[in-house]
Design brief:
Elements: H1 2-23, H2 27-55, H3 83-91, H4 98-119, H5 131-153, H6 159-162, H7 166-173, H8 180-188, E1 196-197, E2 200-201, H9 220-228, H10 230-233, H11 247-259
Antiparallel strand pairs: 1-2
């Protein structure tokens, strides 16, 4: 009796497998049940991590220290999952190519991701028989990993650290005494986030090297006017205005720039 029931179950199961293979499983309730279970698992994990973060210090503090608006030692950075895009900006940093790093490459990759299912319509699932898809996935993951690491470890020019370079600038450029206050102001005002000076700085958005700015003999009046309103002097300049600086600070910066004739 028992053996007959087992045989009937085996036959019924075999028939079920054949039906599934021929017709497939209905979405309801099988796929919906699987999706519901996985959704509950994901939500439970997120809620659990939220409780751990809120009530313990295992995942870091809930609030960081209050921001100091006057600091020169802080560089805003994106969250870690945007580091790969952040580093693309450091690669495509010229005005004419920055759109390629910010919009072009991510958009092209997103379009490829959307059209791949319509291009690759094979039913083969074994990984070893899909070398192109595997190689593409590995290259994408590897490139994003490298760019994320590079973005996380990229050093920025901090004003508090750059002050230590001022004596070297004075020596290399043979700056006069009256240019030293402007050199210190230049180091701590964020100028080197975009410009470079004697090999130090960011060189972003095509900002010029200012090591030999004084050799152009533009004059202190020109430098002050340019600092107050860069786009008024150079049409379309992306450089921010320093009009909030006092006249004394602007003059110190102008004296420093005019004294920078290049290393001797």
């Amino acid at each position: 009796m028992a053996s007959r029931r087992l045989e009937e179950r085996r036959i019924a199961y075999q028939r079920y497998k054949e039906d599934v293979k021929r017709e497939g499983k209905p979405f309801y309730p099988y796929a919906m049940f699987h999706d519901t279970v996985m959704s509950l698992v994901v939500v439970s994990v997120i809620v659990g991590l939220a409780f751990i973060w809120h009530y313990t210090s295992l995942l870091g503090p809930s609030l960081a220290a209050k921001a100091d608006p006057g600091t020169t030692s802080f560089v805003p950075r994106p969250d870690w999952y945007f580091y790969f895009l952040f580093y693309l900006l450091r690669i495509f940093k010229w005005p004419n190519s920055v759109i390629l790093g910010t919009v072009g490459i991510p958009t092209i990759l997103l379009i490829l991701l959307l059209v791949i299912p319509f291009i690759d319509v094979r039913r083969e699932r074994r990984l070893l028989r899909r070398p192109i898809a595997i190689v593409a996935a590995v290259l994408v993951a590897l490139s994003m990993g490298v760019l994320t690491y590079k973005g996380a470890t990229a050093k920025e020019a901090l004003g508090a650290e750059l002050l230590a370079d001022v004596p070297n600038w004075v020596k290399a450029e043979k700056l006069p005494k009256q240019a030293v206050p402007g050199a210190k102001l230049f180091a701590t005002s964020g100028c080197l986030n975009c410009h470079t000076y004697l090999g130090v700085g960011g060189a972003l958005l095509g900002a010029p090297n200012l090591s030999a700015e004084g050799s152009k003999n533009k004059g202190i009046a020109f430098q002050i006017a340019h600092l107050k309103c860069p786009s008024c002097v150079n049409k379309g300049s992306p450089m921010p205005s320093f009009s909030a600086f006092s006249n004394a600070d602007l003059r110190q910066l102008a004296i420093f720039l005019e004294a920078s004739k290049g290393p001797h």
